[in-house]
Amino acid sequence: MSRARTILGIFLLFLFLFALTGERPFASHLAYYYDILINIGINVILAVSLNLVNGYTGQFSLGHAGFMAVGAYAAGSWSEHLSPGLVNFLAGSNGVLTFVLQPFPFLQPFAFPTAVADNLALIVATMFGGLLAALAGLAVGIPSLRLRGDYLAIVTLGFGEIIRTLILNIDFLGAARGMSVTGRYTNMFWTFGFAAVAIYVVLGLVNSTYGRGFLTVRDDEVAAEAMGINTTKYKVIAFVVGAFFAGTAGSLFAHYAGFLTPEGFNFFKSVDVVVMVILGGMGSTTGVILAAALLTILPEVLRALAHTDFVPAAQKAIEGVIPIHLPPLQGLLENRLILYSLLLIIMMLTRPQGLFGDLAGSRKRVTSSASK
Amino acid sequence: MAQVILFLQQLLNGLSLGSIYALIALGYTMVYGVLRFINFAHGDVYMLGAYAGFAITNVIYRFVPLDQYNAISRHTFVPIFVCTAIVMLGAMIFCAILGMSIERIAYRPLRDRPRLTVLITAIGVSLFLQNMTQFFVGAQPQAFKQLIPVRAIEGLGDLTVLSSQAAIIISTIVLMVFLRLIVMKTKIGLAMRALSVNPTACSLMGVNNGLVISFTFALGSALAAAAGILVAMDSPSITPLMGNLPGIKAFVAAVLGGIGNIPGAVVGGLVIGVLETMVEGYGFPQLRDAIAFGVLIIILLYKPTGLLGRVEREKV
């Protein structure tokens, strides 16, 4: 793990330097690409954390968007209602930080209040969001993780929907109107920083004793139980850690988009993440990261393609051959769920171990559980 | 007295809602019986049933403008009945073919794979059906044209029974009787029951398992189509996403009754329908959609075999 730690360190340092130098001009000049990059980061966190539950532990959860929603709304309302006072207390003109740094004038340039305050506010809010999501994960996990397979999928789907319905009925969180989050603190450093931490933690867990627990639960739950392994414990741990990172992704999203609606966290958002995990290969972190990036970029590419002259031409050609009046074909390319549903079916029929299942050496495990 | 009437009214509304859940739940439970997996796309077959009915109704309106009938009387009964029957049968046949095709294309190649693989495929099929429907007909709700005039039936005192509710309950009973006859009295029904007990032994006895599975999908999908049309009669607004929630609730109904058990699915559907209406009617309308999930968790934790299911040992 020490090599991983070095890589993590170098990666974070690079991100930090980038945040200090190139990020702001990049964000303002290439806003569209910056947007895609941030979304990749958020999706990597979601996919890697869901992979811990769905891939390594074999518990098929369909409610990841629910935990993301908990994190997003918790962190958002933290920033809206609690954080301003706290930030002022710490980094305001009469705040603690200013007072502490007074005797050290050479440190002053590093403590320019807004930057420090913004980053501090983001990390505190994100931790808060993550912790609340983890709590929600615990509350959901303890009763439902005694269920297996298909039942768990439906119950987690249900919990995702219940969380969404709850938000819809809480006026404090904006209900159906949505909630605006004023502090748009999210940047590449925190997004990819959290992504790196999520990857590090998930890999760390999987390569530890806990990881053996997760894999046994996935490979054969009955045998694991017979060997005296507390399967519920391992499932709950995976679930809570997954929910925590979903919550942090939610917080980053809240502080990036600046506006939250319950509809943004519906069942289809969960499906997005599930498709990333399945395309990448359940139980392959490398694959899942690549799939998350790929599936963030692909809808953008398809959308660009939908607006080329090629599509109307193709439509005319098709309607020339078959005498049916089709709705505009752009709709096919712009609806990501059509692509995702086809991906799910085709992957399951041809390569259930995922695109990158081989790379991470998880193929053997997948096929051995498949031959059961 | 008013309390009793209110309770009876809620019970009646619940039974008509529950009949719909029961019809959908039958599809889940029969497929589970023969294949041991949850057909996630079943709710979307129900949705497509409603759309097929919508299309057929529009065609019928060219010949018989059914909205000219204001009430069901001796003179209007025959045309209304015949047209409704045509719409229902047409949609049921369409969905039966659809159900068989789904099974043939998406599920059959996965027969020996882990259940999770099939479940994921089913989710994919469900999303595909929803979004292709959305592509072809648009996401906005469509108004289902009137098949039977929705009026309160007279002569029942303070109790309000809409003609659509009566149609739902009567049609459900008729379909259940038919299903019962098919499953208990025909050869293919016998094969279905045999397959659900032991697939290997069943095929050794000379039963064509693939055919029986296809037939099960056709039967379940036809019932879902009927449910879709009955719902559209009662609340005539259909959308491509209308199958999601009823699909999940019907699945819960199937589990509640004991998945794989046909009478159980009916009982479960009625129980969920009545529970939902009662919770909504007695002051917690926002909890309505959460009931089903709560029931699912409780039933799976305390009586995973359901109300009428039999205990199945998990073998290592």
Quick description:
The complex is a heterodimer of chains A (372) and B (316). With 372 residues, chain A is an all-alpha fold.
What features would you describe in this structure?
The complex is a heterodimer of chains A (372) and B (316). Chain A has helices at 2-20, 23-29, 31-56, 64-91, 96-101, 113-144, 149-169, 188-206, 209-219, 221-226, 231-257, 267-280, 285-306, 310-321, 330-334, 336-350, 363-370; strands at residues 179-180, 259-260. With 372 residues, chain A is mainly alpha-helical. Chain A has one domain. In chain A, α3 packs antiparallel against α11 and α4 (64-91) crosses α7 (149-169). Chain A is globular and about 80 Å long. Mean pLDDT of chain A is 84; it is low at 359-372. By secondary structure, chain B is mostly helical. Chain B has one domain (2-302): ABC transporter involved in vitamin B12 uptake, BtuC. Chain B has eleven helices and two strands. Chain B has helices at 2-35, 42-63, 77-107, 115-137, 163-185, 187-197, 199-204, 209-234, 244-257, 262-281, 288-302, and strands at 142-143, 237-238. A two-stranded antiparallel sheet of chain B has the order 1-2. At the A-B interface, α7, α10, α12 and α16 of A face α4, α9 and α11 of B.
Question: Which characteristics define this entry?
Answer:
heterodimer, A: 372 residues, mainly alpha, 17 helices, 2 strands, B: 316 residues, ABC transporter involved in vitamin B12 uptake, BtuC, 71% helix
Strand order of the largest sheet of chain A: 1-2
Distance between the termini of chain B: 57 Å
H/E element order of chain B: HHHHEHHHHEHHH
Portion in beta strands of chain A:
under 5%
Biggest sheet record of chain A? 2 strands, antiparallel
What are the segments of chain A in which pLDDT stays under 50 over at least 5 consecutive residues? 359-372
